[in-house]
Design brief:
Elements lengths: L1 H53 L5 H7 L9 H18 L1 H13 L4 H12 L19 H10 L6 H4 L3 H18 L4 H10 L1 H10 L5 H22 L11 H6 L14
Helix pairs in contact: 1-3, 3-4, 3-11, 4-8, 5-11, 6-8, 8-9, 9-10, 9-11
Length: 266
């Protein structure tokens, strides 16, 4: 009789445990399905918004937001749309552009999302952009600054024309950003001010406790704004950047690495 009772208790225990495990498994399955449905919906919205924004880039509300004048009042749609547009541009331009950003940002211990945000503010991803002051390429670097950085970081100097090469421009730009980060003790605000206004002007401003020009303030707000939103997207798994990338991934993409002979000459 005792043996039967023991057997019955074991059976009930196993049955209860089995049902408990089944309930746990069902719970996990439901959670996974809900996550997949939510992620699919977000990704679909992600690309739909990017397409919508592309057709309305000349909209005055977007221009005002992009200039940094009304960031606090920007709608949720506009906030996400810039990040979505950036991602779609990176995908459309060529995976090699994203590869270069990932590789060189990691090389110089920078966040890829920060580098992307600077490129967006500086050139809107136009590798042939030239400013009124002579800054060149994706990250809008002055040739004199680029030459100094190339010597400091032992990077082969390819001249002004080399800065029109997206990969080379990103290499020099990331090295320069690393240089400024060290110079201003990892202070992002001062680093961005220096990138836009120059390190000498920024150091004088800090010493005299003065404010930077309104254009520099707007630039810093714009970069930080884009950077924070790209980071939010990254945390939602919409932008899953690998932690490292091999040089082979860069060489593999020949369409991005324009030959120097085809670039504008000095």
């Amino acid at each position: 009789m005792k043996e039967k009772n023991i057997t019955l208790l074991k059976f009930l225990s196993i049955t209860y445990k089995g049902r408990s495990d089944l309930r746990s498994q069902r719970g996990q399955i439901v959670k996974t399905l809900l996550l997949l449905i939510f992620t699919g919906w977000v990704v679909l919205s992600f690309f739909q918004e990017a397409s919508l924004l592309r057709r309305s880039l000349n909209n005055s509300a977007y221009r005002q937001e992009a200039s940094g004048k009304s960031l606090k009042k920007a709608s949720a749609t506009v906030i996400s749309s810039r990040s979505n547009l950036i991602y779609s541009i990176l995908r459309e331009k060529d995976s090699g552009l994203l590869n270069a950003i990932l590789y060189y940002s990691r090389k110089y211990n920078l966040e890829p999302t920060l580098v992307i945000s600077i490129i967006e503010a500086e050139s809107r991803f136009n590798p042939y952009a030239v400013s009124a002051k002579g800054a060149v390429g994706l990250m809008q670097i002055l040739p004199s600054t680029a030459e100094y950085i190339s010597k400091k970081y032992s990077i082969p100097w390819r001249g002004r024309s080399g800065l029109f090469n997206p990969s080379y421009n990103i290499l020099i730009g990331c090295a320069y950003l690393h240089y400024l980060m060290k110079k201003f003790n990892q202070n992002l605000k001062y680093t961005l001010m220096a990138y836009n206004w120059g390190p000498s002007n920024t150091k004088k401003m800090i010493k005299k406790l003065k404010s930077p020009p309104s254009t520099t303030k707007a630039y810093v707000r714009r970069v930080v704004f884009t950077y924070s939103n790209l980071e939010k997207l990254n945390s939602l798994l919409l932008l899953r950047f690998p932690r490292s990338l091999s040089p082979h991934s860069l060489r593999k993409n020949q369409r991005l690495a324009y030959s120097l002979s085809s670039l504008p000459q000095d």
